[in-house]
Amino acid sequence: MSVAITTDSQALEQPSGLIYLYEIEFGTGTNNKLYFHPGKDLDGTESDKNLIFDGNTYIALPIVLDEIEKKADGAMNRPEITIANVETILKSGSEFKTNMEVTSGDNAWNAVIDKTPLTAETFTIDSLIGQKLIRRKTLEKYTGSATPVEFPKESYIIDRIKEKNFLSVTLELASPADLTGVRIPARTVIGKYCPWLYQGHETNPVKSACFWKTHQQVTDVDGNLYTFYFTENDEPLILYDHFYNANGTRKAADISTIVSIAVTFAGTGYSSTPTVTISSPEAGGTTATATATVSNNAVTAINIVNGGSGYDGNPPTVTLSGGGASAQAQAVATLSSRAWRGDYSSSATYKPGNYVYNVTSSGNTWRAETTVQGVTPAKGNINWQAVRTYTTWNNSTAYTVNASDPRQNSYVRYTDNNVYRAIAPNSNTTPPDNPKSWTRGDNCGKLLKSCKVRYQAIPIKLGSSAVRTDSIPHSVNNTHSLLPFGGFPGSRSFR
C-alpha cells in the first residue's frame, strides 16, 4: 500500500470517494483480463462512466460484491458477486466482445484455458469457473493515472455459479488457499516449539531460516571459530579424545594454572615493593609466583612470574606483605579455563563448566552446571548435565547400543561433519546411507533452550589453532549473543 493513500485514509476528512475496480483473469496469456467497475453513472447521461487506472480501461458494469468477511479462525469466508449477465453482453457487441475480438498487435486477446483458446464466440458462463477475480480499491482522485495508488489487492477464485438468469449471474468466490489445500499459516506454530527445519538454511535447496551449520558455528571475540554438537535433549556431544586415552582409560585431570591476578585494594604507605605469596596447589603441582608493582605508595599491579600448576579447587590465596605499608594491598587470582576433572569425588568442589566421569544409569560423563560439592551426578539433578562422547567413524569398529537407554548408544562423526547415533549394532556401515543402523545424533530439541545452548555457546579454549572443530562448551551461555530470530516462532522474516 502506497504512502500517499495511507496518509489519505488517516485524514479526518476525505473529499474523494472510494472506487472499486474488478479484473477477471482467464487462464494464461499476456492479454487475458476483462476490466470492469460498478460505474459512477449507469443511465448513460455521462460520457466518462468508464475509468482509466494503471493504464487499463475499466468498463462500467452493474455489479455487487457482498458477504466479505475476514477472520483468523474457522472456515474461510466465501463472498458472492452478482454481475450483469456477461454471457449475454458478450453476444450483443459490447466493449468486452470488442476487446476479445482483437487478434493482432499489442492488445491481441490471447487467453488460454486448459490449452484451449478462449474467444468471444466460445465464451460461456462456465468459462468463469476456476478463474481469478481481483478486486482493487483506490480513491477517485487517483483514477486516470497510469501510476497506481491503491489499497492492497484482494484475490479470489470463482468457485461455482450460484444463480443465473437473463439479467444477472451470482458467483460464489473462494480464497485461493481454500481451493489448493494450503494451510494458513503455512508454518505450523505450536506453543514453545521452534517451527524451523534444523540446519535448513544449509541445505540445497534452502528449506528454512535456521542457519546453524555442521561446522564452524560460533565465533569468539578474537575471530576464532568453534564447532559444537548437541543431542535433541540439549546434551553436549564432546570428542572422546578430550577425556579418554586411545586404550579406553580415562585421562588425568587437566592441570590448572593462574592466568591473572587482579588488585582489589591498592593499599597505602608503601615505601618499597612488597612480597607476593601465593598458596600451594591442592593437587601437588607447582606453586605459582608473582611480583608487585608500586606507584605513588600503592600497589598498581601484580605480575605473574610463573602460573604454577595443579590448582584443583578454588583460586589460590594471594597475600602481600612488607614494603612498609600502613595498609596492605589485596588481590584475587583467576585460574585458567578447565574442562576435564577426571573421576568424580564427593569431597571435591566443582565449578560450572567442569567435566567429570561417574558411572550412573544415565551416562558416564557429566558437566557441572553450578558450583557443587557432595552432590552425585544423576539424571534430573539440576547441578549436572549429562554429556555424550563421539568418535571418528571407522569401518573396522563395532558400534553398540544400550538396551535400557538409547541416549548411551555409540556416537560417531562422519566425513560429512555430522554426528550420528547408532540405533542398531553394526560395523562397516556408513551412517548417511544406512538409516536402519544410524540416525542423526546432532539434532535440535526445538525449544528455546536448544537455541540458546547453540547460538550462545561459550567455548572452553583448547590449543592455539584458529579453527577448533572439536570444541567443549562451557555451562554458561553468552547472553549478549543474539538468537537468530530474537526467539521463536520467529520474529525475523525468513528471506
Structural description of this entry:
The chain is mainly β and 495 residues long. The chain has 3 domains: 178 residues, no CATH class; 168 residues, no CATH class; 78 residues, no CATH class. It has 5 helices and 35 strands. Strands 3-4-2-1-9-10-11-6-5 form a 9-stranded mixed beta sheet. β7 and β8 form a beta hairpin. The longest helix is centred in the C-terminal third of the chain and has 8 residues. It is elongated and about 110 Å long. The two termini are 20 Å apart. The C terminus is likely disordered.
List the helices and strands and how they pair.
Blueprint: H1 3-9, E1 18-25, E2 33-37, E3 51-53, E4 56-60, E5 63-66, E6 80-84, H2 86-90, H3 95-100, E7 112-113, E8 116-117, E9 132-139, E10 154-164, E11 168-174, H4 176-180, E12 218-219, E13 225-226, E14 229-230, E15 236-239, E16 258-265, E17 275-278, E18 289-295, E19 298-306, E20 317-321, E21 330-335, E22 340-343, E23 349-350, E24 355-360, E25 363-368, E26 372-373, E27 384-392, E28 398-399, E29 411-413, E30 419-422, E31 426-427, E32 438-440, H5 448-455, E33 459-460, E34 467-468, E35 472-473
Parallel strand pairs: 2-4, 13-34, 15-27, 22-24, 27-29
Antiparallel strand pairs: 1-2, 1-9, 3-4, 5-6, 6-11, 7-8, 9-10, 10-11, 12-13, 14-15, 16-21, 17-20, 18-19, 20-21, 23-26, 24-25, 25-27, 28-31, 29-30, 30-32, 33-35
